[in-house]
Amino acid sequence: MKGLRSLVVVCLGLAPAWLQAQHVGADSAAPPSPPPLEVRVDSSQHELVLTAGPFHLPVEPAEGEQTAMQMTMDMASMEGIVLQRFMWPMECWVRGLRVELVDRQGHVLPRRLLHHLIMVNFARRQLIYPAAERVMGVASETDGGEITVPKTIGIPMHVGHGLGVYVMWHNPTGRDIDGVYWRMTVKWSPTNLQPRPISVLPIYMDTNMQEDGNNEFSAPPGRTTKSFEFTLPVGGHLLGVGGHLHDYGSSVRLEDAETGKVLVTLRARRDSTGKLLGLERKLFATRGEGLRIRANHRYRVVGEYDNPTRDTLPGAMAHMVGIFAPDDMTKWPKIDPTNRWYQKDLADLLGTGKSL
Ligand SMILES: [Cu+2]
Fold it and tell me: Measured between alpha carbons, how far is residue 77 from residues 70, 300, 341 in Å?
């Protein structure tokens, strides 16, 4: 316990009002019950430590042994999200997180067992999509399993915000693994921090997001380009960007769709066979400056794959995520509970199926 002031705030089994208020269909199947989640606030270190487990990671068939049909079935079964819910415990700005995998004894396990881990905030929606805000996440290619922004920047979080964390595992080891825990350390800044941090919200820009929540595509041998155009209801500054690709992904970029100018490109680090080792992240500014993004102006996010094999890669993804400082926070779009996209996302997250 490091002798620090700490407090277990929330445990499993909580059914807070913010969830009961959401109507997700009376005839829905019961969601799988997640393993216990412990939430601990460390006020002296300004950290929130979440620990969940134990998880059982079933073996995945090795690449090459899978038929296209099996792959499709695996993808579908991976969509059975296990969401751990908790209530945000204090007023603060979030400025980063670090994720580790550990076993029952607390020994660190290889992070490649994690495809991705994402924290979702049910109290806000995304800027582009009507779905709930994804606050932050790490994927297997996230260097050090850690994302941090300078103290001058933060995502505003409030007491009572309904939060959740979900994980997609990836177990290519050839055997089942038992007793896996994820530990997420969220770094936060207190409300009395001076100078006051600039408030940013996450912006998620996917090259292939569909209303049903599916953003995967196939990457056949050679080059594949996926792109998506959008406008935003509020202008602001993009202060930093990261992204997500799978094996054979080569880059993801943001363009001004009206002028064709490339605003930022993130390149993948790959091994000699095209497997993904990492993806660049860029921080443009630690203050209010950064990449100017205009309201009602067309932008385009573009993902590139370069598959050197003779096989089509199923289930590819390409997206960019950024931290965005809106000119006017009040113009951030509000959650519309009647929106079908929003409802489908919520039902998927809560594991209540697709019957709406
Ligand atoms: Cu992915």
Answer: 10, 31, 21
